Amino acid sequence: xxxxxxxxPVYYQFDQWAGTETLSHGVFTRLGGVSVxxxxxxxxxxxxxxxxxxxxxxxxxxxxxxxxxxxxACTVWQVHSxxxxxxxxxxPGRRWLARADGIVTxxxxxxxxxxxxxxxPILFHDPxxxxxxxxxxxxxxxxxxxxxxxxxxxxDAYGCDPADVQxxxxxxxxxxxxxxxxxxxxxxxxxxxxxxxxIHYAEDGSTYFDLWAANRLALERAGVHQVEVAGLxxxxxxxxxxxxxxxxxxxxxxxxxxxxxxx
Length: 263
Known about the structure:
Elements: E1 2-4, E2 11-13, E3 23-28, H1 52-65, E4 84-86, E5 102-105, E6 112-116, E7 120-126, E8 131-137, H2 139-143, H3 146-158, E9 166-169, E10 179-180, H4 182-192, E11 199-201, E12 207-209, H5 211-221, E13 226-229, E14 254-260
Parallel strand pairs: 4-5, 9-13
Antiparallel strand pairs: 1-2, 2-3, 3-14, 5-8, 6-14, 7-8, 7-9, 10-12, 11-12
C-alpha cells in the first residue's frame, strides 16, 4: 500500500489501483481529524460517544481529500451479516441504505463507505464492467461469507466475471493478535471445511484466527484471483488505526471509501 500524507487526513491506497484515473479510493487512518481522546482524531463512528459535530467535520475532511461529494455517499448500518445491497442513490431521509455488510454499485460519482476498528475492510473493483464494492468482515461476516456474497452480487446484478474482479484486503486485526475461542474455531471449520491456514495454534493451546487468509480463501473460491493484502494490523498499530480489541472498546472508527470517477 501507499501512504498518503499531504497535511490533511492520512490514508492508504492499494498498489494495484495506483494511478487508476477512473477509480478513487482510500483506507483512512485515525490521523488528521478534530476528535479528542479517546476518539482522536479522525473518528467517523457516530455511535461511539464522540461529539457529532467533530464526526461531521472528519467526514467532510475525508471526502474532501478524495475530491468526492459526501452528500451523496452511501453506507450501511453494519450488523456483522453476509447481506449485500445494491446502491443506486443515497437513501432519502437517512444516512444508511439498510442493515447490511456489503455494498456494490456501478454508478459513477456515488461513493461507498464503511467504518472499521479491527474488522476487515475489503474493496472490490471490476474494471471491465466498471463496478465497485466494499464489505465489512469481522469473524461473523468472514464465516458467513460476506466476501463471497459481495462477488456474487456483482455477478448477478451487473454481469461481472469474478476473474475480472480485483479485490483488496485492508488494515484490520492481524493473525498474531486475534485470539478466539472454540466456538469461532468451529464456525471457521464449518464455513471453510478445514481450519488449515486460517486458524493458528499457539504453544499454550490458544487459538488465533487469520482473517486475512480466510477472506483471501473466500475470494479465491469465488473466482477472484487478483487480491492485494495490506498486511497492516490495527491492534499492533494503534498509533495509526483504531482498534476495538487493543483499546478495550473505547475508541473510534476509521473509514474506507471507494468511488467510480468519470472516464
